Amino acid sequence: MPLQRLAVIRGRFAPLALPALAVIEDALSRADRVLLLVSAAEQAPSCRMPWTAAARTEMAEAAVAPFGDRVVIRAVPDWRYDRTAREAAEVAAIASVESGAAVRLPDLPDDPELIAALFERGAEAARGRVSDSVIAALSAFCATDAYEGFREEYRYVENYRRAWSVAPYPPVLVTVDTVIVHVPDGGGPHLLLIRRGGVPGKGNWALPGGFVDPGEWLIDAAFRELREETGLTLTDDEVRTALKGRGVFDAPDRSSRGRVVTHGFHFVVEGGPLPDVAGDDDAAEARWWPVGELHSLRERLLEDHPDIIVHFLGHAALS
Known about the structure:
The protein has helices at 18-28, 53-63, 83-95, 112-121, 132-141, 145-164, 218-230, 236-242, 305-313, and strands spanning 4-11, 31-38, 71-75, 103-104, 173-183, 190-196, 205-206, 209-211, 243-249, 260-270, 283-290. The protein is α/β, with parallel strands linked by helices. The model has no long low-confidence stretch (mean pLDDT 95).
Protein backbone atom coordinates (compact mmCIF):
# COMPACT_ATOMS: atom_id res chain seq x y z
CA MET A 1 0.00 0.00 0.00
CA PRO A 2 1.30 3.49 -0.82
CA LEU A 3 2.41 5.46 2.21
CA GLN A 4 1.76 8.86 0.66
CA ARG A 5 -0.94 10.35 -1.54
CA LEU A 6 1.28 12.79 -3.43
CA ALA A 7 5.05 13.18 -3.75
CA VAL A 8 6.33 16.51 -5.11
CA ILE A 9 9.59 16.85 -7.04
CA ARG A 10 10.90 20.17 -8.37
CA GLY A 11 13.45 20.62 -11.15
CA ARG A 12 14.04 22.38 -14.44
CA PHE A 13 13.90 19.08 -16.34
CA ALA A 14 15.99 20.51 -19.16
CA PRO A 15 15.55 17.79 -20.27
CA LEU A 16 14.20 15.06 -17.98
CA ALA A 17 17.11 12.56 -17.83
CA LEU A 18 17.19 8.89 -16.88
CA PRO A 19 18.41 9.50 -13.28
CA ALA A 20 15.38 11.76 -12.75
CA LEU A 21 13.16 9.10 -14.26
CA ALA A 22 14.53 6.61 -11.73
CA VAL A 23 13.74 9.03 -8.87
CA ILE A 24 10.18 9.39 -10.16
CA GLU A 25 9.73 5.64 -10.44
CA ASP A 26 11.01 5.16 -6.89
CA ALA A 27 8.64 7.86 -5.61
CA LEU A 28 5.73 6.09 -7.31
CA SER A 29 6.54 2.96 -5.31
CA ARG A 30 5.72 4.92 -2.16
CA ALA A 31 3.04 7.35 -3.31
CA ASP A 32 -0.23 7.29 -5.23
CA ARG A 33 0.93 10.05 -7.55
CA VAL A 34 3.93 12.27 -8.25
CA LEU A 35 3.76 15.96 -9.07
CA LEU A 36 6.65 17.36 -11.12
CA LEU A 37 7.17 21.10 -10.68
CA VAL A 38 8.89 22.37 -13.82
CA SER A 39 10.69 25.40 -12.42
CA ALA A 40 12.02 28.61 -14.04
CA ALA A 41 8.74 29.09 -15.92
CA GLU A 42 9.39 32.85 -16.15
CA GLN A 43 12.86 32.56 -17.67
CA ALA A 44 13.78 32.92 -21.32
CA PRO A 45 15.54 30.00 -23.01
CA SER A 46 19.33 30.28 -23.14
CA CYS A 47 22.35 28.10 -23.84
CA ARG A 48 22.06 26.83 -20.25
CA MET A 49 18.36 25.94 -20.60
CA PRO A 50 17.39 26.14 -24.27
CA TRP A 51 13.68 25.40 -23.91
CA THR A 52 10.63 27.21 -22.63
CA ALA A 53 8.72 25.74 -19.71
CA ALA A 54 6.12 24.51 -22.21
CA ALA A 55 8.76 22.66 -24.25
CA ARG A 56 10.35 21.15 -21.13
CA THR A 57 6.91 20.06 -19.93
CA GLU A 58 6.18 18.43 -23.29
CA MET A 59 9.45 16.44 -23.18
CA ALA A 60 8.78 15.41 -19.58
CA GLU A 61 5.24 14.29 -20.45
CA ALA A 62 6.63 12.03 -23.17
CA ALA A 63 9.23 10.59 -20.79
CA VAL A 64 6.71 9.77 -18.04
CA ALA A 65 3.94 8.58 -20.37
CA PRO A 66 4.42 4.93 -19.27
CA PHE A 67 3.27 5.93 -15.76
CA GLY A 68 -0.06 7.19 -17.06
CA ASP A 69 -1.98 9.71 -14.98
CA ARG A 70 0.01 8.90 -11.83
CA VAL A 71 2.49 11.63 -12.82
CA VAL A 72 1.19 15.19 -13.05
CA ILE A 73 3.24 18.14 -14.31
CA ARG A 74 2.89 21.84 -13.51
CA ALA A 75 5.16 24.75 -14.50
CA VAL A 76 6.11 27.20 -11.73
CA PRO A 77 8.31 30.34 -11.65
CA ASP A 78 11.53 30.63 -9.66
CA TRP A 79 11.26 34.31 -8.61
CA ARG A 80 14.82 34.21 -7.30
CA TYR A 81 14.51 37.36 -5.19
CA ASP A 82 11.03 36.72 -3.80
CA ARG A 83 10.83 33.50 -1.82
CA THR A 84 7.29 34.23 -0.67
CA ALA A 85 5.99 34.50 -4.23
CA ARG A 86 7.90 31.38 -5.30
CA GLU A 87 6.46 29.33 -2.45
CA ALA A 88 2.95 30.66 -3.09
CA ALA A 89 3.16 29.54 -6.73
CA GLU A 90 4.27 26.07 -5.65
CA VAL A 91 1.52 25.80 -3.03
CA ALA A 92 -1.05 26.74 -5.69
CA ALA A 93 0.35 24.11 -8.07
CA ILE A 94 0.16 21.43 -5.38
CA ALA A 95 -3.37 22.48 -4.41
CA SER A 96 -4.46 22.09 -8.03
CA VAL A 97 -3.59 18.39 -7.79
CA GLU A 98 -4.12 17.36 -4.17
CA SER A 99 -6.12 18.92 -1.34
CA GLY A 100 -4.56 16.71 1.32
CA ALA A 101 -1.02 16.28 2.56
CA ALA A 102 1.84 16.19 0.07
CA VAL A 103 5.41 15.05 0.71
CA ARG A 104 8.13 17.22 -0.77
CA LEU A 105 11.14 15.27 -2.08
CA PRO A 106 14.57 16.84 -2.78
CA ASP A 107 14.86 19.04 -5.85
CA LEU A 108 16.50 17.47 -8.87
CA PRO A 109 19.60 19.35 -10.09
CA ASP A 110 20.41 20.39 -13.63
CA ASP A 111 22.82 18.36 -15.74
CA PRO A 112 25.05 20.97 -17.46
CA GLU A 113 27.22 18.23 -18.95
CA LEU A 114 24.23 16.92 -20.89
CA ILE A 115 23.53 20.39 -22.32
CA ALA A 116 27.22 20.82 -23.21
CA ALA A 117 27.20 17.47 -25.01
CA LEU A 118 24.07 18.51 -26.91
CA PHE A 119 25.79 21.61 -28.30
CA GLU A 120 29.10 19.91 -28.96
CA ARG A 121 27.94 16.67 -30.55
CA GLY A 122 24.22 16.89 -31.19
CA ALA A 123 21.27 14.84 -29.96
CA GLU A 124 23.02 11.47 -30.22
CA ALA A 125 25.38 12.59 -27.44
CA ALA A 126 22.41 12.34 -25.06
CA ARG A 127 21.63 8.73 -25.96
CA GLY A 128 21.85 6.54 -22.88
CA ARG A 129 21.23 9.59 -20.67
CA VAL A 130 17.61 10.28 -21.62
CA SER A 131 14.67 8.16 -22.79
CA ASP A 132 14.06 7.41 -26.47
CA SER A 133 11.12 9.81 -26.50
CA VAL A 134 13.38 12.64 -25.31
CA ILE A 135 16.01 11.68 -27.89
CA ALA A 136 13.36 12.17 -30.56
CA ALA A 137 12.51 15.62 -29.19
CA LEU A 138 16.20 16.58 -28.98
CA SER A 139 16.81 15.42 -32.56
CA ALA A 140 13.96 17.64 -33.77
CA PHE A 141 15.30 20.55 -31.72
CA CYS A 142 18.81 20.18 -33.17
CA ALA A 143 17.39 20.68 -36.66
CA THR A 144 16.04 24.16 -35.81
CA ASP A 145 17.49 27.66 -36.19
CA ALA A 146 17.00 28.11 -32.44
CA TYR A 147 19.48 25.31 -31.78
CA GLU A 148 22.10 26.99 -33.95
CA GLY A 149 21.52 30.29 -32.16
CA PHE A 150 21.97 28.73 -28.73
CA ARG A 151 24.99 26.83 -30.01
CA GLU A 152 26.57 30.16 -30.97
CA GLU A 153 25.77 31.48 -27.51
CA TYR A 154 27.24 28.37 -25.89
CA ARG A 155 30.52 28.85 -27.77
CA TYR A 156 30.61 32.52 -26.81
CA VAL A 157 30.13 31.69 -23.13
CA GLU A 158 32.78 28.96 -23.21
CA ASN A 159 35.30 31.34 -24.81
CA TYR A 160 34.37 34.07 -22.33
CA ARG A 161 34.97 31.80 -19.36
CA ARG A 162 38.18 30.48 -20.88
CA ALA A 163 39.51 34.04 -21.18
CA TRP A 164 38.93 34.57 -17.44
CA SER A 165 40.40 31.19 -16.45
CA VAL A 166 43.91 32.67 -16.18
CA ALA A 167 42.83 35.15 -13.47
CA PRO A 168 44.42 34.45 -10.07
CA TYR A 169 40.97 34.35 -8.44
CA PRO A 170 37.53 33.50 -9.78
CA PRO A 171 36.21 36.82 -11.12
CA VAL A 172 33.18 38.57 -9.67
CA LEU A 173 31.94 41.12 -12.22
CA VAL A 174 29.75 44.17 -11.59
CA THR A 175 27.00 45.49 -13.83
CA VAL A 176 24.15 48.00 -13.66
CA ASP A 177 20.58 47.81 -14.95
CA THR A 178 18.02 50.59 -15.22
CA VAL A 179 14.29 50.19 -14.65
CA ILE A 180 12.97 53.48 -16.00
CA VAL A 181 9.23 54.07 -16.20
CA HIS A 182 7.69 57.06 -17.97
CA VAL A 183 4.08 58.09 -17.37
CA PRO A 184 3.16 60.44 -20.25
CA ASP A 185 0.41 63.04 -20.00
CA GLY A 186 -2.94 61.30 -20.30
CA GLY A 187 -1.38 57.83 -20.63
CA GLY A 188 -0.36 54.81 -18.62
CA PRO A 189 3.12 53.84 -17.43
CA HIS A 190 5.67 52.58 -19.96
CA LEU A 191 8.90 50.68 -19.28
CA LEU A 192 11.99 51.24 -21.42
CA LEU A 193 13.50 48.00 -22.73
CA ILE A 194 16.10 47.11 -25.33
CA ARG A 195 16.23 44.07 -27.59
CA ARG A 196 19.69 42.52 -27.47
CA GLY A 197 21.61 42.49 -30.71
CA GLY A 198 24.33 40.03 -29.68
CA VAL A 199 25.01 37.00 -27.53
CA PRO A 200 24.27 36.11 -24.84
CA GLY A 201 20.54 36.57 -25.07
CA LYS A 202 20.42 37.67 -28.70
CA GLY A 203 16.87 38.69 -29.57
CA ASN A 204 15.68 38.78 -25.95
CA TRP A 205 14.32 41.92 -24.36
CA ALA A 206 16.34 43.38 -21.51
CA LEU A 207 16.74 46.34 -19.22
CA PRO A 208 19.26 48.93 -20.42
CA GLY A 209 22.55 48.26 -18.66
CA GLY A 210 26.02 46.83 -18.80
CA PHE A 211 29.39 46.53 -17.12
CA VAL A 212 30.80 49.20 -14.82
CA ASP A 213 34.01 50.85 -16.01
CA PRO A 214 37.02 51.16 -13.65
CA GLY A 215 36.77 54.33 -11.56
CA GLU A 216 33.08 54.80 -12.40
CA TRP A 217 30.30 55.38 -9.87
CA LEU A 218 27.50 52.84 -10.24
CA ILE A 219 24.80 55.40 -10.99
CA ASP A 220 27.06 57.09 -13.55
CA ALA A 221 27.51 53.71 -15.24
CA ALA A 222 23.72 53.31 -15.33
CA PHE A 223 23.31 56.70 -17.03
CA ARG A 224 26.11 55.97 -19.50
CA GLU A 225 24.63 52.60 -20.52
CA LEU A 226 21.17 54.14 -20.75
CA ARG A 227 22.48 56.84 -23.10
CA GLU A 228 24.62 54.45 -25.18
CA GLU A 229 21.89 51.82 -25.67
CA THR A 230 18.78 53.99 -26.05
CA GLY A 231 19.86 57.60 -26.62
CA LEU A 232 17.88 58.66 -23.53
CA THR A 233 19.40 61.11 -21.08
CA LEU A 234 18.11 62.40 -17.75
CA THR A 235 18.69 65.92 -16.48
CA ASP A 236 19.99 66.53 -12.96
CA ASP A 237 16.53 67.71 -11.91
CA GLU A 238 14.89 64.57 -13.35
CA VAL A 239 17.38 62.36 -11.55
CA ARG A 240 16.69 64.00 -8.20
CA THR A 241 12.92 63.64 -8.50
CA ALA A 242 12.69 60.41 -10.50
CA LEU A 243 14.92 58.03 -8.52
CA LYS A 244 12.54 55.80 -6.55
CA GLY A 245 14.78 52.97 -5.44
CA ARG A 246 17.81 50.80 -5.99
CA GLY A 247 18.70 47.21 -5.23
CA VAL A 248 21.38 44.54 -5.58
CA PHE A 249 20.61 41.36 -7.52
CA ASP A 250 23.17 38.66 -6.84
CA ALA A 251 21.81 35.19 -7.57
CA PRO A 252 25.04 33.21 -8.15
CA ASP A 253 23.69 31.67 -11.36
CA ARG A 254 22.00 34.77 -12.74
CA SER A 255 24.39 35.12 -15.70
CA SER A 256 25.66 32.50 -18.12
CA ARG A 257 29.00 34.32 -18.24
CA GLY A 258 29.81 33.59 -14.61
CA ARG A 259 29.47 35.42 -11.30
CA VAL A 260 27.93 38.78 -12.18
CA VAL A 261 26.36 41.02 -9.52
CA THR A 262 24.11 43.75 -10.85
CA HIS A 263 22.84 46.95 -9.24
CA GLY A 264 19.37 48.02 -10.31
CA PHE A 265 18.15 51.63 -10.36
CA HIS A 266 14.44 52.44 -10.52
CA PHE A 267 13.26 55.76 -11.99
CA VAL A 268 9.75 57.07 -12.59
CA VAL A 269 9.39 60.15 -14.83
CA GLU A 270 5.96 61.74 -14.99
CA GLY A 271 4.46 64.11 -17.53
CA GLY A 272 5.21 65.14 -21.08
CA PRO A 273 5.32 62.87 -24.12
CA LEU A 274 7.28 59.62 -24.29
CA PRO A 275 10.85 60.55 -25.25
CA ASP A 276 12.21 59.26 -28.53
CA VAL A 277 14.58 56.30 -28.13
CA ALA A 278 16.64 54.24 -30.56
CA GLY A 279 18.69 51.08 -30.10
CA ASP A 280 22.45 51.48 -30.35
CA ASP A 281 25.66 49.89 -29.05
CA ASP A 282 24.60 46.39 -27.81
CA ALA A 283 20.91 47.07 -28.48
CA ALA A 284 19.25 46.15 -31.77
CA GLU A 285 16.14 48.07 -30.72
CA ALA A 286 14.90 50.28 -27.90
CA ARG A 287 11.20 50.58 -27.12
CA TRP A 288 8.80 51.92 -24.54
CA TRP A 289 6.57 49.00 -23.53
CA PRO A 290 3.21 49.70 -21.85
CA VAL A 291 3.49 48.12 -18.41
CA GLY A 292 0.10 46.52 -18.99
CA GLU A 293 1.57 44.57 -21.94
CA LEU A 294 4.75 43.30 -20.29
CA HIS A 295 3.12 39.92 -19.60
CA SER A 296 3.47 39.20 -23.33
CA LEU A 297 7.26 39.18 -22.85
CA ARG A 298 7.34 36.35 -20.32
CA GLU A 299 10.03 33.86 -21.38
CA ARG A 300 11.48 36.55 -23.67
CA LEU A 301 13.29 38.62 -21.01
CA LEU A 302 17.02 38.22 -20.45
CA GLU A 303 18.29 36.10 -17.54
CA ASP A 304 16.88 37.43 -14.23
CA HIS A 305 15.42 40.64 -15.66
CA PRO A 306 11.87 39.41 -14.97
CA ASP A 307 12.87 39.18 -11.29
CA ILE A 308 14.31 42.71 -11.31
CA ILE A 309 11.20 44.11 -12.98
CA VAL A 310 8.79 42.53 -10.50
CA HIS A 311 11.01 43.62 -7.60
CA PHE A 312 10.42 47.27 -8.51
CA LEU A 313 7.05 47.16 -10.32
CA GLY A 314 5.33 44.24 -8.57
CA HIS A 315 4.25 40.83 -9.82
CA ALA A 316 1.22 42.29 -11.54
CA ALA A 317 3.56 43.71 -14.18
CA LEU A 318 4.24 40.22 -15.57
CA SER A 319 0.97 38.51 -14.67
